[in-house]
Design brief:
This protein starts with a helix and ends in a 10-residue tail after the last strand. Helix content is 18%, strand content 39%. It folds into three domains: 95 residues, eubacterium ventriosum atcc fold (Sandwich); 148 residues, Antifreeze-like/N-acetylneuraminic acid synthase C-terminal domain (Type Iii Antifreeze Protein Isoform Hplc 12, Alpha-Beta Complex); 58 residues, SH3 type barrels. It is an alpha+beta fold and 315 residues long.
């Protein structure tokens, strides 16, 4: 009999120990992302009540302390009567936050302008706000702010934008101006007339779009391989009117004049009276007959006269 009572007492002690070990254990310091603190946030081993809300969380980016009496009262209301305090008298509760600042809002506006096709290629948008903007602590989500609407007036560059911010009960409205700029090619050094331009002759600098358009801005790919029409200084914005197709033959160049008729080809030495790009027309002096004839530049140092207007004696 005594042995039976001893076994029962031992079993009761073991069961009470298991129950104590299974009780939720209060945490000392917690960080939450949402607007409420759950039992699972507040306690280890929260069990079936883990998803149950127990307190409202502090504002995003802030911290508060909850004393033990408040925790006991709130726990009892949701049916959690027993938990291990771990010797704590209060719990520190922090709420995570995402910072919504001017840079984030400007990026959202820029994305919208690109989606509309207003910003293309190397164009950039400089967002200037009408009033100073203090960063906002929003809920820590993947997209704490979203652009709801954007009104943009290209004529004067003004805009008005409305954003939805996680954690704010009302929309966020901002206004200001948008300055559009484009990467434009400028000369890296001073160059003489006739220089055939290469990529390393240029540096790219941002220029207001209106200024670039007014000055006849030309993209880099339309300038490389072209020839400067005049001596140009370092830092100059190169316009379409500043360049032309390089001359295959320049004035006073010695050339070979080709005359072809059927299987026959005649050549004679000549000198260019005018210059021309490849495929262009020019005047050439026949150094034998001293006659000036019209010809077509076919390659550097080579021109061809057509068979129709030129007789062999005339050449």
């Amino acid at each position: 009999m005594k042995a039976s009572r001893l076994c029962l007492a031992t079993l009761a002690l073991a069961l009470s120990g298991s129950a104590a070990l299974g009780a939720p254990i209060l945490k000392s310091d917690i960080i939450v992302a949402g607007p409420v603190v759950t039992v699972g946030d507040m306690f280890d081993d929260a069990g079936a009540l883990a998803e149950k809300a127990i307190f409202r969380a502090p504002l995003p980016g802030t911290t508060g302390n909850v004393d033990l009496a408040a925790i006991r009262s709130a726990s009892a209301r949701i049916g959690l009567a027993d938990f291990e305090t771990n010797g704590l008298v209060q719990v520190r509760v922090s709420r995570d936050a995402a910072m919504v600042d001017q840079s984030l809002l400007a990026d959202l506006i820029t994305e919208d302008l690109r989606a509309r096709g207003i910003l293309t290629g190397d164009m950039q948008a400089d967002i200037l706000l009408a009033r100073a903007f203090d960063p906002i602590r929003a809920e820590a989500t993947d997209a704490p702010a979203r652009l709801d609407s954007l009104r943009y007036r290209p004529g004067n560059g003004s805009f008005a934008a409305r954003f939805l911010v996680d954690g704010l009960s009302h929309p966020l409205d901002i206004a200001g101006t948008i300055e559009l700029s484009v990467a434009a090619p400028h000369l890296a050094s001073s160059l003489p007339t006739g220089t055939v331009l290469r990529p390393d002759h240029f540096v790219m600098r941002q220029v207001p779009v209106q200024q670039a358009d007014a000055q006849g801005f030309a993209p880099l790919d339309q300038l490389v391989g072209m020839s400067l029409n005049r001596q140009s200084r370092e830092g100059m914005l190169v316009r379409a009117s500043d360049v032309s197709v390089p001359l295959a033959i320049a004035k006073n160049d010695l050339v070979t004049i080709y005359y072809r008729q059927g299987p026959m080809t005649l050549t004679v030495r000549g000198q260019a009276v005018t210059g021309a790009a490849q495929g262009g027309s020019l005047q050439v002096l026949n150094l034998i007959s001293r006659r000036v004839v019209s010809a077509t530049a076919i390659a550097p140092g080579a021109v061809e006269v057509s068979a129709a207007p030129v007789t062999l004696a005339g050449l």
